[in-house]
Here is the input.
Amino acid sequence: MEMDIEVVSKEIEALEDEMVETLVELIKIPAISPDYGYEGEYDKAQRLLEIIKDWPFDKVEVYNAPDERAKNGVRPSILAYYHGRDEKAPRIWILTHMDVVPPGDLSRWTVTEPFKPIIKDGKVYGRGSEDNGQSLVASLYAVRAMMNLGIRPKRTVILAFVSDEETGSKYGVEWLMKNHPELFRKDDLVLVPDGGNEDGTFIEVAEKSILWFRVRVRGKQVHASMPDKGLNAHRVALDFAYHLDRLLHEKYSARDGLFEPPESTFEPTMVRGPADSPNIAPGEHELVFDCRILPRYNLDDVLGDTEKLAEEVRERYRKEFDGETLPEIEIEVLQRLDAPKPTDPDSEIVRLLREALKKLRGREARVGGIGGGTFAAYFRRLGIPAVVWATLDETAHQPNEYAKIDNMVEDAKVMAALALL
Here is the structure.
């Protein structure tokens, strides 16, 4: 077994140029969700299928979640199986996502344009390079190296390349679990290489609950010189946001050292209003909160407190206009993910990953929790232990996002070891 890991590791190193070429090819295709006004993952999935069409996988399956907003009306997920020698050994899933976030402010991309990847100083720059291209390619070539050498792993490897991770997984992992529950087994081992740290020593076993909600305030637009004749929606929204921010931080203030940061977070992130002139007191205002909440708290309680405060603010600013009572304050939940029970730090997948990191890097890994959401949570909800791990410089979602080539190669070795051990 030691010999297999060593030989496969050397083969992965020999495949570095091909890995970089594959990553570059995939970055060129903007697989951005229809939620942002784009076409989705179809073209990227087709390119990926083309790349692996002659690889000796035992089975490759495509599952198309219907989404009329997307290209060809589907959000594809690909499962590629490479069978192991031991049919009784638990299978290992390595799940990566094809979708990427929008590029953001193009003026801040100073190294290259988002979808024109370049290789520079041992890094591949481009949107989606690190999130999640680096790990997607690493997982591919962990298996490719074994194929090239004619080595069968101990356990069956299932590479899953899924859609819709960046906007909630409704058309990705969640859809697969709902529509194809037969794919998953309770004794499966699951690696989600979509989070980590710079030296690859952090294994995520727990996540905070996620709650995104939009607050829509409607007042009555009026000239700013005569505010008494209307109701300034900005003012109502600012009052509400200020008091909500204080309320949530004070009431849900517990700390848990498993997580980084150790407390719940409540961040106002987006603001929108129709006023396009300094002398208009607007009649509408929208804001969005991104909340990452420790698992000990109930999201219904957080929403209940938010609604209760909204009612108090309504009363504070209450005015009648032609029989209509204003302001209106509407709370809309954009995303909700109630944190499942954490993966047991002593589970088989954690043990294997620790062992692989010790063998290959001579490092002891630590376990912990994060505030970001990954689709490991969906497996934990099914009672399937899942870990999130990768070696990342954490440039995801930023301008000049990059993947470090060494990280991609070294992580591929660890992924191969998980299948071989």
Remarks:
- The longest strand covers residues 209-218.
- The chain has a mean pLDDT of 96.
